[in-house]
Write a sequence for this structure.
């Protein structure tokens, strides 16, 4: 009588092959579902995590949206345990920490692409709108990266006076405003343009410059300065 194959042994061998590819060829060697599969395997060592990984990617609509999902949403929609959720969130936090480190090490305006990479990773796939203010020193070094407002899927309450007051508290020489469009299209709305101009006008007599207002979407980004709106 032939022995039945051991699913745990098969899974272990498959993970060893993934590990070898990752070590020898780098991160691009693994597809999205393989990265998720391997992350989940760290928390669920004796299960075949490939079906779970594929299901999560399908339910959330891709790698970016899966990694950006909060723990409560993952638990509710994904149907996975705390250990697996922690593995995904640790991976997201590590990636964002690495990208952010490239921003804080040099003047922001001299590392613009690094800033865009960080902002896109952090905001492009968020399901609700978030508005942030990046406070800069006179040398354009990042002083503080703060969440200003968080709203519904299409609106966040932003108060110009609070943005300027915070800039005064931090002795900011300049500000870069950032927010995301959950719908994916980063084209600025009329409200976005009006808010930006109000912040510019409020900061001008105090010597606080608004360098830009960057809108992040899954389909890319838009710079209001590049569009001639500031």
């Amino acid at each position: 009588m032939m022995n039945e194959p051991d699913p745990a042994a098969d899974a272990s061998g498959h993970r060893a092959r993934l590990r070898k590819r990752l070590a020898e060829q780098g991160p691009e060697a693994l597809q999205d579902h393989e990265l998720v599969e391997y992350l989940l395997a760290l928390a669920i060592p004796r299960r075949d995590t490939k079906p779970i990984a594929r299901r999560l990617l399908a339910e959330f609509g891709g790698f970016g949206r899966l990694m950006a999902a909060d723990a409560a949403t993952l638990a509710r929609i994904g149907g996975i345990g705390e250990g697996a959720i922690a593995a995904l969130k640790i991976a997201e936090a590590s990636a964002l920490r690495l990208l952010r480190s490239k921003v804080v090490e040099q003047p922001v305006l001299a590392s613009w692409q690094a800033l865009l990479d960080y902002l896109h990773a952090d905001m492009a796939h968020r399901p609700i709108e978030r508005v942030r203010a990046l406070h800069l020193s006179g040398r354009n070094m990042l002083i503080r990266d703060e969440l200003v407002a968080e709203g519904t899927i299409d609106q966040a309450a932003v108060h110009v006076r609070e943005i300027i007051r915070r800039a005064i508290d931090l002795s900011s020489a300049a500000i870069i405003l950032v927010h995301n469009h959950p719908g994916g299209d980063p084209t600025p709305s009329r409200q976005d343009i009006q808010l930006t101009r109000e912040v510019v006008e409020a900061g001008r007599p105090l010597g606080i410059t608004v360098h830009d207002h960057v809108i992040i979407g899954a389909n890319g980004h838009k710079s209001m300065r590049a569009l001639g709106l500031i």
Q: What stands out?
A: The chain has two domains: 7-96, 106-223. The chain has a mean pLDDT of 87. Residues 82-104 form the longest helix (23 residues).
